């Protein structure tokens, strides 16, 4: 009888532990599209305008995800993660939030669509991003 009780305790403990293992959060996958972009200076030109372009040094390609929020400390949730298309939702506390989609045409050319709220104001932008040199 003691042997059966011990087996029940062991099997119950194993079942509980396997439940905890299954509930452990999965690691966020890498962003495939960003891994394929060339480092260096990138010029972002807003489509449909004659306004000035933005230049950024792309040591960290994640800057393309929150163009409107710059270096703000934001949390991100990956919605779509393919080698040629990336869509991410992000939140930057009181600074606002947004959703950005990037489509890669080559390792030096991307199309960026972003919209959200920045400092209480809505924004929507469409950019073409090109690698224009080193920085």
Description of the structure:
With 135 residues, this protein is α+β, with helices and mostly antiparallel strands. It has helices spanning 2-23, 32-35, and strands spanning 41-46, 54-57, 75-81, 85-91, 96-106, 109-118, 121-133. Strands 2-1-7-6-5-4-3 form a seven-stranded antiparallel beta sheet. Strand 1 and strand 2 (54-57) form a beta hairpin. The termini are far apart. The model is unreliable at 3-28 (pLDDT under 50).
Topology:
Layout lengths: L1 H22 L8 H4 L5 E6 L7 E4 L17 E7 L3 E7 L4 E11 L2 E10 L2 E13 L2
Antiparallel strand pairs: 1-2, 1-7, 3-4, 4-5, 5-6, 6-7
What features would you highlight for this structure?
single chain; 135 residues; alpha+beta; 2 helices; 43% strand; globular; disordered N terminus
Beta-strand content estimate: 35-45%
Q: Largest sheet, order of strands side by side?
A: 2-1-7-6-5-4-3
Q: What would you report as the Rg, rounded to the nearest angstrom?
A: 22 Å
Give the averaged pLDDT, no decimals: 80
Q: Stretches where pLDDT falls below 50 for ≥5 residues? A: 3-28
**SSE ordering:** HHEEEEEEE
Give the CA-based shape: globular
Instruction: Describe the largest sheet.
Output: 7 strands, antiparallel
Separation, N- and C-terminal Cα atoms: 75 Å
Tally of DSSP helical segments? 2
By DSSP, the count of extended strands is 7
């Amino acid at each position: 009888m003691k042997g059966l009780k011990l087996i029940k305790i062991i099997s119950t403990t194993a079942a509980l532990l396997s439940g905890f293992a299954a509930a452990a959060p999965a690691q966020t996958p890498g962003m495939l599209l960003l891994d394929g972009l060339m480092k260096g200076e990138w010029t972002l030109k807003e489509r449909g305008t004659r306004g000035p372009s933005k230049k950024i040094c792309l040591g960290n390609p994640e800057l393309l995800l929150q163009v409107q929020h710059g270096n703000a400390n934001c949390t991100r949730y990956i919605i779509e993660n393919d080698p040629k298309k990336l869509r991410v939702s992000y939140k930057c506390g009181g600074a606002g939030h947004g959703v950005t989609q990037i489509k890669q045409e080559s390792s030096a050319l991307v199309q960026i669509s972003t919209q959200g709220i920045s400092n209480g104001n809505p924004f929507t932008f469409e950019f073409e991003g090109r690698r224009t040199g080193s920085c």
